[in-house]
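Good morning C.,

I know you're traveling, so I'll keep this short. The sequence:
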Amino acid sequence: MRYFNLPDLGEGLPDAEIQEWYVKVGDNVEAEQPLAAMETAKAVVDVPSPFAGKIAKLFGEPGDTIETGDPLVGFEASEEVANTSKKEDQGTVVGRVDSQSTILADDVTISSMTTTPSDSLKVLPAVRATAKKLGVNLANVKGTGPSGQITINDVKSFTGSNTSGQIQEGYEVLKGFRRTMCQQMTRSNDQVVHTTVFEDALIGHWAAKTDITVRILQAIVAACKAEPALNSHFDGDAIAVKRFSDINLGLAVDTENGLFVPVIEKLNSLDAGQMRDKINEFKDKVLTKSISPEEMQGATITLSNFGTICGRYATPMIVPPAVAIIGVGRLHDSVVAIDGKPEVRRAMPISLTFDHRVITGGEAARFLKAVINSLET
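The tokens, ready to paste straight into the viewer:
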């Protein structure tokens, strides 16, 4: 049998959920013909066939979750074809996946022991990345995949961290958008040193029909110019930072299916009208589930306007590799001292969470001050 493994559908995603099969066992398919709709990264993606052939096996039913790098479809093949390099078998939506027959040197240690992988070690990049994260030497792991291939579950089982066992009564397994959010927030909590500063912007002077979200976006642009350090990505493994001149803003959009974060690219190049058009476009796409994975990748900084629902202050979670997220709370009337006298002013609470591994308190404070100054001007 010739195997087609689930490719990485975007920026290191560990798995995807089968939404719908477009084919069945016995079907003859052409290269690039859609095989299945897979839900991942808060979007539904069609996975095309990497080659022409006859379907011999489908690995899973709608609702099942498939790990990146694990078999998705089996094709009928002659012995000669089945024994050829798997490089010919690795179709992918976002580029070729490294061959599972490639021997990868493994320098990960367990305790004080390091072993050399054997010549038969077969791993995919996604499996290797999981092994590194869990501190597993792949040479010590027995593969249960096709032809002895090591899968992500094999690595997790080796460490005792496999959570795919029986579900307790009354519990429901998270799937789709909720599962993705859970994975992202767990990663964020594990990797980022979250620190939050708070302040109010006094906006009583705004005109009645002011577009609040657009004004916030304009304030973020001003703040990124004043303190560009927060418009960055950070690689914690390499301890390296990447600064950006353009602002690609992730805009959190809440729905009944979970939180979506489409990215407004080059926000700094847009005028107020163009910003509003982009906001409306993304909201429509999110509600109709027509937004693509590419439109939710590459954010350099994020905005969460949770105050449209409830809450004044929060500690929003950063999604790596970004280093900052701005939270806007519920607008309210506040009594403040103006020239030594109490006055009631309209206030907008601002929460700025930053990654303290790479952003200093001074940089965060200057950024927040620039946001406030822009809103109060």
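Safe travels,
E.
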